[in-house]
Amino acid sequence: MIAKVVLEIPVFMEFDYIIPENLLSTVSPGTMVKVPFRNKILRGYIINISHTSIRSKLKEIISVINEKPALSQNLIKLASWISEYYLCPLGIVYRSFLPPGIRNNIKGRKDYRVISSLPLDRLSDIAEKMQKKSPKQSSVLRFICSHTEKKEFDMPKLVSAAKCSKQAIISLVEKGFLSLRPVCASEKDEISFPYPLVHEIKLTEEQESSLKKITGSIQKNEFCSYLLHGVTGSGKTEIYIKSINHALQYSKGAIVLVPEISLTPQTIDRFRRRISEPMAIIHSGLSDGQRSEQWEKISKGLAKIVIGARSAIFAPVKDLGLIIVDEEHERSYKQEDSPKYNARDVAVMRGKSENATVVLGSATPSLESYYNTITGKYKLLSLLNRVDGKTLPSVEVIDMRSDRQNIKLSCSEELAGEIESRILKKEQTILFINRRGFSSSVICPSCGETIKCKNCSVSMTYHKSKKLLFCHLCGYHRRLSSVCPTCSNPKLIQLGLGTEKVEYHIQKLFPHAKLLRMDSDTTSFRNAHRKLLTDFANKKYDILIGTQMVAKGLDFPDVTLVGIIFADLSLSLPDFRSAEVTYQLLTQVSGRSGRGAVPGKVIIQTCLPGHYSVTSSAKHSYMDFINKELRFRKELKYPPFTHIINFTISGKNESHVRNKAEFLHGTVLKNKPDGIDILGPAPAAIQKTKSNFRWQILIKSHNIRKLHATAKELLNKSSSIKGIKISADVDPLSLL
Hints:
By secondary structure, the chain is an alpha/beta fold. It has five domains: 2-103, GIY-YIG endonuclease (3-Layer(aba) Sandwich), CATH 3.40.1440; 110-190; 205-386, Rossmann fold (3-Layer(aba) Sandwich); 390-438 and 497-632, 3-Layer(aba) Sandwich (Rossmann fold); 643-730, Alpha-Beta Plaits. The protein has a seven-stranded parallel sheet with strand order 11-12-10-13-14-9-15, with helices on both faces. Strand 1 and strand 2 form a beta hairpin. Helix 19 (612-618) packs antiparallel against helix 20 (622-636).
C-alpha cells in the first residue's frame, strides 16, 4: 500500500511512500509519520492511501509518530481550504494545526485536585474517629469540611494548609474517602483564586433578543454567522457565557477566541465564575508540554470549552456547536508567518464545515465583517446601550497644536487636571500610547542623521530603563553613543515618546501617585499579565500606562478616566487601513472608562482633531465612521469591495530584489486577466527588515478565483529564483 504524504516544507506537492507491513493497521489519513527525504528524516502527514503510484523507487515510512490520527476529518478539510485560499503548502498548514509538543512528543508535568468522595457530614464523622490513630489524615478531612464553599482543592496547597504530607492524602484516596482529578499544569497556573459560581444575571431586552437568535441556531444544529455589534460595556461577554451554557445543555462544545494573551486571564476568570464545566486554555504563554496537555485534554473530550488566542481555532473539540471570536476586528488574529490565515475567517469556515454557530463580537467591527451583514453573509445583532443604565463616557478632544500645550510633553493641562481630580477621589486612570520605550528616535542636530538599525530601515527606539537603543522589528540593540556615529557631534537629541517617557512625565507631575506600566517590556516574565492586572484591579495602583494591550477587553469599575496620548500616531502609517485602526483603538480604549457606578471621561490628545476617525470616536458614532470609510474604500477599490493579495519579494541583495520584482511583473502580470488591478512593483514602506531588502506587488480584484489563478502563476514563476524569497499574503491587514 502507498501513502500520499505532505511534508513540513514549503513545497506544493505530495510524496509517495510505501507503508511497511507492520504499520498497515496503524495508519490512516491524518496520521503523523517520520519519513526519509533526501538525506534527512522529516515529519509528514498522510493525506491519502492508495494501491499504486506513478513514481518508481519508493522509500518506506520509517515510523508512526502517533497511531491515532493527529487531525479529525473536519480539520483535514479545513486544512485543505486554508492551503488553497491562503496559498500555503498543505504540510505547513498541518504543522500550524498541532502544538509543538504534540509534533515532538513532549509531555508536560501533571498535578492533581483533591475531591471529597463522600458527603461532608460523613467526612466530618470519619475525621473525628481518625483523630487519635491518624491525626494527619484527620487534619486533612477537617480542613476540607471547614471549607464548604470549595468543591476541589489543589494538592500542594492542601498539603500546606492542612500541615500534612502528600502521603496522608494518598492514604485517604486509597481508603475511598477522597479522590484525585488530574489537571494540566497550565490549568493550575491559570487559576488565581476561587470564584463562587454565579448562575443568573438579568439580561437587557437587547441582550435577550440577541441571545435568543444565537441559541436558536445552536438548537437547530445549523451553521449561521452572527456579527454581535455592541458598544463597550453592553454585555457581550454575558451573551457569550449564556450561549456556551446553552451549547453545553445540548452536549455541544465551544471555542472562544480572544485576540491578546493579556485578555486571557480576565476572560478565564469571568468564565470560571459562570461555567462549572472544565475548560482548556491555549495561548503562546504556555510551555510546549502544557500546550500538549491541553490539546490531549480536548482531544479526549475531557474539556468541551476552549479559550485561547489565534491557534485555539484548530483545537480538536468534539461535537463543536459554537465558536465565539471576541474583538473580531483585532489584527492579532492574522498570522504573520505562513500560513498567513485570519483566525476570524477560519472560524467562519470551520463553523460552516461542522454546522456550528459562529458569533463575531466587537464594539468596532471590521469593515469586512460589517459589509458582510449588508450583503447578507452575516446576520447583525446590535447592542446599542451599556448594561444597568450606565452611560458611555464623555469625550473631550484636545488640540495639541494649541499654543497652551507643550507638544513635547505627554500630558496636556486638561488631562493633568483630570488625573489630579481622580487621585484625590481615589479613582483610577488609564493612559494609552501605542508606542513603547522612552524616545522613538535619536537624531543628530548637526548632520541630521537619525540612528537607525543596522538590519532594518527604521529608527531605533531608546529604552531608558535598559539604557539601550532597540529595533522593534528585529530586536537588535546597542548602547546609546555619546557622539553621532556619522559626524561625531557630541550633542544628540532624543525625539518622540513612548510608554517609558509618559511614565517619567506623569511621575514628575504626580510624585505621590502609584504608577503601573504595561507593555511588552514589563510583561515578558511568566504570568506577568495576570499579576499586573490583578494588582491594578485590587487598587494597588492609581494610574495604568500602557500600549494597545490595555485598550480592549479589560473591565475595571474604578477606572473613571482614560487619557489617550497622541491619538493620531497610527494615522501617519502609509496604509489604507490607518483610519480604521485609529478609530478602533480610540473607541476601544475609551470604552475602559466609566464601567462602574461613576460616569467616565475620556481625553483624546491629537494634532489632527478634525479627522473623521477622531471625531466619530468622540461622538461614539460607528455609523458616522463606517459610512465615510466605506465611500473611501469603494472609490479606491479596496476591501471590502475587492480582494487583495500582497506579494513581498525579499533578499540580501537590493538590486537582485528589484530586478526580480520587475521580472515577475513583466512576465506574469504584464498580460493580466481582465478585472485585475496591479500596484507596483515598488519598494515596501519599510524597505529593509532583518537585513533583507523588500519590494512589493499588490494585485486587486472583485473575483477571488481570478486573483488566486494569477497568484499561483506568479508563485510558480518565482519558485526557481535562488536567494530571493517570494511570499503571498491573501487579504493582508497591513501593507507595511
